[in-house]
Amino acid sequence: MSPLLEVSGLAKHYPVKKGVIVQKQVGTVRAVDGVSFHVNRGETLALVGESGCGKSTTARLVLRLIEPSAGTIRFEGKDVTKVEGGAMRLLRRRMQIVFQDPYASLNPRLTVGDAIAEPMVVHNIGDNASRRAKVHELLRLVGLAPFHAERYPHEFSGGQRQRIGIARALSVEPDLVVCDEPVSALDVSIQAQVVNLMKDLQARLGLSYLFIAHDLAVVKHMADRIAVMYLGAVMEIGDKGALFANPRHPYTRALLAAIPHPDPARRGRVTPLGGDVPSPMAVPPGCRFHTRCPFAQARCKQEVPELREITPGQRVACHFAETLPDPGLDYTGGLT
Ligand code: SF4
Ligand code: MG
Asked: Does ipTM top 0.90?
């Protein structure tokens, strides 16, 4: 069976212009720069990386909230970038988003019931009575009592608002839910509750998640597979177990080694990465990670490493993925 979502060579480049009357293009921001991955039915693929690495732009491209500069996005084998009109409306219904900020993503003037029902209205699903019944069912599904439908967003906590955001996304019965840092604005004590709810809903409804995060503790709990992004490209992608047990890309290793382990004897001895992430207007040639990679060699500055399968289910964009020294670290950083 083909994957639910298949993204190939996806890119988003923005021209940078200067001048008031006569505008001249002075550069290009390569926000997303040739990204490929797939999401199978019923699974969670996490996109991780530091802020500015292109995760959110990738999410917006997948949902076609913005148009790609290059590449294809296939949903059930159909190229989403070529779909228009009514067919696109149908596709939109099947892909929904849960936003990072549960405070900003709900209209303060709509009751919670109206906010949850809104996507059903937009997609012409049901009548008032059936939508009302569905809202009550959705509220129960996310662990809130149906009477909350008459209240307003400001009457709820952050965690409750994110439950409402999830109910809203589920109101049109999507197959894929793109989650853009859905718990990073919440208190740590609340994060686990929302993550557990999302996992429970996935199992019950057979949902697929494209789960965007920078917190590896959350990702370890949530993901089936993980794609590590750096400066607009995927550096490593693989099953969660393999990636945590045996990360192959130097950048993945650095990210994982940065998680503090509660036992000092097992803490990473990998030196933290030097330097800053280069600007997406000046992506280094060859391996885009070479300016910060402790293993960089002459070849790395010229030749772009392709994302190659190193072991079944694990692909790595590094010329030397097979021969890099194994630092023998416990990369789990105490994450359970
Ligand atoms: Fe480092 Fe070279 Fe591998 Fe890039 S290709 S990650 S610079 S060793
Ligand atoms: Mg973001």
From this structure: yes
